[in-house]
């Protein structure tokens, strides 16, 4: 059975169309596949805080795991952190809190299914200037109140007027003086008793002498 020229031509056209469609689908599939070029990293300041951000602009939205490592002389010093991101055409950004130092180097690795398993090239180098830290004003010291001595603990330096001018009152329980002593005290005899006794004795002697001489004169006058 022979194929007409018209049929052969139709088959040829159909084959070319199929190949073109397959090529277009392949290109579209590659365009929609996740690629490392769709990831970017940046070290910046979020206010006074230092952070590292990774942006994913994969329009297919393939879930990817992003890992960040601090580098030193081409070797990993420590792992800063790991997060999952699902990109979009507008881009999705994830943030790692890291107090980076100026001119430090970080390696960012991306693993997205079977499509991506590599680092963002080149490695991330931080800015030459660190983020500004917030300055805290010095605390104002409140002066402590001075301690005053207690009035009960400190004796009074100046005696009161009543204590210095008024003599202490005699106790009601003091013994009262004898009756004779009180009379002598009123007449003053208790102070001149010796002198009065001496005068009285002298008067007695004088009186006795006068009596003696009087009697002697009387006897002489009787004898004459």
Structure characterization notes:
- It is built from four helices and eight strands; from the N terminus they run αββββββββααα.
- The longest helix has 35 residues, at 189-223.
- With 224 residues, it is an alpha+beta fold.
- The chain has helices at residues 5-32, 161-165, 179-187, 189-223, and strands at residues 39-46, 49-56, 63-72, 75-86, 92-97, 105-112, 116-119, 124-125.
- Mean pLDDT is 76; it is low at 24-31 and 184-189.
- The strands form two sheets. Strands 3, 4, 6, 7 and 8 form a five-stranded antiparallel beta sheet that branches. It has a three-stranded antiparallel beta sheet with strand order 1-2-5, with no helix packed on it.
- Helices cover 34% and strands 26% of the residues.
- It has a domain at 36-126: Immunoglobulins (Immunoglobulin-like).
- The N and C termini lie far apart (240 Å).
CATH C-level name of the domain at 36-126: Mainly Beta
| Main beta-sheet annotation | 5 strands, antiparallel
Provide mean pLDDT, rounded. 76
Low-confidence stretches: 24-31, 184-189
- Helicity, in percent? 25-40%
Number of strands: 8
The CA-CA distance between the termini, in Å, is 240 Å
Transmembrane segments: 195-215
Protein name: Secreted protein
Region (Disordered): 118-186
Biased composition (Low complexity): 125-178
What's the short story on this structure?
With 224 residues, this protein is of the alpha+beta class. The protein is built from 4 helices and 8 strands, in the order αββββββββααα.
